[in-house]
Write a structure and sequence with these properties.
alpha/beta; eight-stranded mixed sheet; 8 strands; 37% helix; globular; binds ligand STX
């Protein structure tokens, strides 16, 4: 994603002071960058999708005087290679637990003892998986638009629930899929997205990504839709997301909420838009119930995206507060 329209709560745009590639094995090169203050408090930002890649504006969630800001493009997307839009890219080497290992390897390679972990949507699932695996590596958690890949969460957004709110956009989402296959949309999309022929996977990737991009914000954001539906971006995004959802994220059903007890002692803030259609507030609520020590901030006039003004403001308030600790 490119930068959104100006959001008042964000810090001014900055450039990285260092970029590099982590050689993660399996032929995977993981793009990372550091910005802000090299002597500051370390924070890592985990992007969404999976497959969304990082965007420059995500640096602006952090006070550049006080934070050493690390962004990375998860396997197969953004500037990481092999890119999942490449038909030869093998998604067998792309699972939640590969990403968790990549994050931990990057932390050690950067010489960071422990860091704040910030993630929204898929990034919140990955942050929870990482923190539950390596709690000693995590100083604080700031999570937004909670997503845990339980069956009913995936069914809500990809198998018809959300058609109650976006029936017009849902018609476009189901259009590439023959009527007889529409009772299992994730599987039907999987068959098309894994086809090497661009005439087959191209329109499927576009429809999948357009559905998601069009439903992330309280008000339509054509710019967001345009930047996400660039052909290579949309293909990697749709292929990676669909691959993760076919496998339930390689989680036991309900695992991320059941294991919330492992996070005891990690200061945390959960930011959730009331009108989040992609990852409805029920999941943030379930996590809050299982993990009452985490502060839950409900933004009453926001959808899913971190670029919603009220969401960005709540995230910056949380990172500002933790910068002092
Ligand atoms: N996917 C939700 C998610 O993490 C179920 C997500 N959706 N779009 C994005 O992330 C980007 C804005 C990062 C592309």
């Amino acid at each position: 994603m490119t930068n959104p329209k100006k959001i008042d709560a964000l810090y001014p745009p900055i450039k990285p002071y260092e970029t590099g590639y982590l050689l993660a094995g399996d032929g995977q090169r993981i793009y990372w960058e550091q910005s802000g203050n090299p002597e500051g408090k370390p924070v890592v930002f985990l992007h969404g999708g999976p497959g969304g890649g990082t965007s420059p504006w995500q640096r602006q969630l952090f006070d550049p005087e006080r934070y050493r800001i690390v962004l990375l493009d998860q396997r197969g997307c953004g500037r990481s290679t092999p890119h999942a839009s490449d038909p030869d890219a093998d998604l067998r080497f792309n699972t939640t637990w590969h990403l968790v290992a990549d994050i931990e390897l990057l932390r050690r390679n950067l010489g960071i003892a422990c860091w704040q972990v910030v993630g929204g949507s898929w990034g919140s699932a990955l942050a929870l998986a990482y923190a539950q695996t390596h709690p000693e590596s995590v100083a604080e958690l700031v999570l937004r638009g909670i997503f845990t890949l339980r069956r009913h969460e995936l069914e809500w957004f990809y198998e018809g629930g959300a058609s109650a709110i976006f029936p017009d956009l849902w018609e476009e989402f189901i259009r590439p899929i023959p009527v007889l296959e529409r009772s299992r949309m994730i599987e039907a999309y999987h068959r098309r997205l894994s086809d090497p022929d661009p005439a087959v996977h191209g329109p499927a990737a576009m429809a999948w990504t357009t559905w998601e991009a069009s439903t992330l914000t309280l008000r339509p954001d054509r710019r967001l839709v345009r930047t996400m539906t660039d052909a290579a971006t949309a293909t990697a995004f749709a292929r990676i997301e669909n691959h993760y959802f076919m496998h339930g994220g390689w989680f036991e059903e309900g695992q991320l909420i059941a294991n919330a007890g492992r996070l005891r002692g990690i200061p945390a803030v959960i930011v959730q838009g009331r009108y989040d259609v992609c990852t409805p507030i029920m999941t943030a609520w379930d996590l809050h119930r299982a993990w009452p020590e985490a502060e839950l901030v409900i933004v009453d006039d926001a959808g899913h995206s971190a670029t919603e003004p009220g969401i960005a403001a709540a995230l910056v308030a949380a990172t500002d507060r933790f910068a002092a600790s």
